[in-house]
Amino acid sequence: MLLVFDLDDTLIPTSKEITPKKLDFALKQMIDSGLLFDFEEGRRMIHQMNESARRSKEVIEEFVLRAEGSDYHKEVGLRALDEKTQGINVTPQIDLNDFLKILRKSHKLAIVTGGNKEAQEEKIDLYQIDRELFDEIIIEEWGQKERAYTKLKEKFGPFLVVGDRIINDLSGAKKIGCITIHIRQGRGAFEPKNHPDVDFEIETIKELTRVLERI
Questions:
Q1: How many domains does the chain have?
Q2: How far is CA 87 from CA 7, 84, 104, 131, in A?
Q3: 143 with 50, same domain?
């Protein structure tokens, strides 16, 4: 069976290691572009908002509204979020590669992620994820994973997908008859329990083996 993985907050700890630093950068860019706001106060506000936000883009939009900024400031902040992650230190996912190699012995593997293509490609390399372990790596626009899932089903048949965002990562796969696993980490920790589009729940990626034993 094909195993499909989301990238952010599923395979890599984006919300923990990358998002806070990108938000700091976006805040600095907005202030440098003329937004009248104290950096430290803004930083505290943005990080507090980010703890329960669905997306970092929503944090920027809400912050600019509260700070009485302009559409220009918002565009500066949103553009900064999409820039490459140069200078951000992360923890390489070496153990993850070992785990994926074990899965690879019995399953085909794929990544389906959404967002800026260059930024997503960079994250894969930044965390030293072994690309050779995957039969497919697909980067779609945000919210457009269902078309990738349809193509994968046509090529590989019904598959299993693991993701932290129920609507964005799992609902499209559930709609076409695939098995869905919600991983409750990163932003996924705030998702509702017992959702009809979720077949199984796990807390960490390595708990996937427990689910596979039951299928």
A1: 2
A2: 20, 9, 32, 22
A3: no
